[in-house]
Amino acid sequence: MAQFKKIKVDRSKIKTAIQAEIPLTVTTYTLPIEITAYIDDILKVFLEEVHQSQMFENLSYCLKELTNNAKKANTKRVYFLDKKLDISKREEYDKGMLTFKDDTLNNIKFYLELQRKLGLYIKVSIQTHNNKIKIEVCNKSELTVFEYKRIHDKITRALQFSSVEEGISQLLDDTEGAGLGLVIMILVLRKIGLTEENYQVISTNGETITRLILPFSQKLKNDISMLSKDFVDLINGLPEFPETITKINQLINDEKSNMSDIAMQISNDVSLTAELLKLVNSAAFSLASPCRSIADAVKIAGIRGIRNLLFSIGSMQTLMVSSNEQNKKLWSHAYKCAFYAYNLARNFCKASVDRSCIEDSYVCGLLHDMGKIIFETAHPDILKKLGETCDRRGLSMDMFERMVAGVNHGELGALIAEKWNFPNIIVDVIRYHHAPESAPDEVKKLTSLIYLADLLVHYGDGEVDFEQIDTEVLAMFNISDEEQLAGISNKLKKSFINE
Question: Is pLDDT above 70 for 376?
């Protein structure tokens, strides 16, 4: 076999994708051997990072089967075009398939190049979300009715066999090699405890998507559940908000208090006074002349603005207990995300309709990674205690670190926000900022905006690609292509530097 140049896998990029619950994607037109090997290596590292390495051998086989089928489907389309046959007509399909295999094997370079010219891609996507792994293989060609029926028939036949060995011995298909491979794949999935419901084929809008939905092992779910309970218990040991901020918040919630009482309490705190004046004199309020009075600032900011300011300042004062590099990096990302979120809100949300979305965008952007911040930098004693819990329960500390620094940090941050009596809007945005489609309807737009701001920061830093961003979120903000996204990213980047 000829040697090929191996493509290096970027483990840090895979970790970022897992933490942000965004897909890892690879797009190819001809699926050369080096890309097949690269996809396999990505799958291996991905499964290692989510502590599901036991799935690798079986999923590796399934992924190779799916990508080869996608490549073959595209080759079939260009072959039929070249032979001037209509693939959607049964008689012409049967006629073309009589010579398809031999003709394409003897002239494969020609047909693969034709696929490239016509833009018939194969896109592989691997993602983790809600303790599940989603693997998709998409190719730029829709199934015909009889192709779809044939796949369904193969799945039905696969269910008749009790093992891979039985399937191989009893089912051979010389018409199309993919037939036997599909049966074996279904049997392999059953071997690791999955059913046909974990396998989906969707063909629409000129594409065919084959999807595998794989739940994490029950043991891992149980371990996460136990540690989550321990975490909730340890939350009670976290410090409360600064006393001054707590008092002001109580005044805000007291129907008998008035704006002058709130202004008086704020003026007793130098840092709060400075931050409030900074807020009302920012571009957000576009004042004709600078505001220097706390009483006027309170009226300008309003109750919602002051409450958001309190949550921002209080969280920072409580959580910023160290100044190591990791802490600085996380807060730098938080500030940038908050800035991006607010500016996106101002440009994409109408004040008459989405005023609350604009007002809440900054604080939600600032606090979206609260779960990650508190575990990675603010309170190492909690990690130590949970490490001891892991040892006591016989659990892997690596598994816990994956939970708190990875896909579960939104939930953990929401638990902290609930402990500190944050409004439901902020709690929900923190909880769902990596899964806006799951957010309650009343905060879906704001959550999507924070999701987009977060990924725009990562995109500007070269940590994620355009293809990894949810297309439904992009469509919500009328972003149709990467050129448009890159333009928005560059403008926000420059504005943040000049802030």
Answer: no
Query: Whole-model pTM?
Result: 0.73
Q: Tokens in use for 42?
A: 């990505």
Q: Work out the number of other CB atoms within 10 angstroms of the CB of residue 338.
A: 22
**Taking the mean position of all CA atoms in its chain, how far away is CA 12?**
15
Q: Given its phi and psi angles, is residue 291 left (phi above 0), alpha (psi -120 to 50 degrees) or beta? A: beta
Q: In this structure, are residues 450 and 364 in contact, taking their beta carbons and an 8 Å threshold? A: yes
- Three-class SS of residue 124? strand
- How far apart are the C-alpha atoms of 425 and 101, rounded to whole Å? 58
Give the DSSP per-residue string, 209-258. Answer: EEEEEEEPPHHHHHHHHHHHHHHHHHHTTS----HHHHHHHHHHH-TT--
Token pair listed for 13: 């990029």
What is d(CA 475, CA 283) in angstroms, rounded to the nearest whole number? 27
State yes or no: pLDDT of 27 exceeds 90: yes
Do 165 and 174 meet the contact criterion of CB atoms below 8 Å apart? no
